[in-house]
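User: quick one, fold this
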Amino acid sequence: MEIEKVYYKNMDLLEVKYKGVIAHFFEGNKHLTLYDVESTNKGSGEVQKMLQLMMEKYPDKKMKGTTPLNPIMEHIYKSLGSRNPADSVE
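Assistant:
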C-alpha cells in the first residue's frame, strides 16, 4: 500500500493506492474521512482490504465516510463493523 499527501479537489488529502484501488482520505486529528474510492478490480475485496490496512496503520483514528457512497460501499462499511455507513468504522 502506498500513501502520498496530495492536493486534490482543493484539499490536502492522503492518496492511497493498493493493488487496483485508488482512494482519497482527509486526515483529521481523530479521524480519517474517505472522500472517494475507485477500483479496477470490482468485487475482488481489494477496497475492503485497503480500508482494513488503513485502520491498522492509523489505529488511533476513526474511519468515516462523507456519505454512503453507493450500495457497494454500504456493504463494505457494514462488513467492517459500521451499523450506518455515515458512522465511524471502529
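User: anything notable?
Assistant: The chain has a mean pLDDT of 83.
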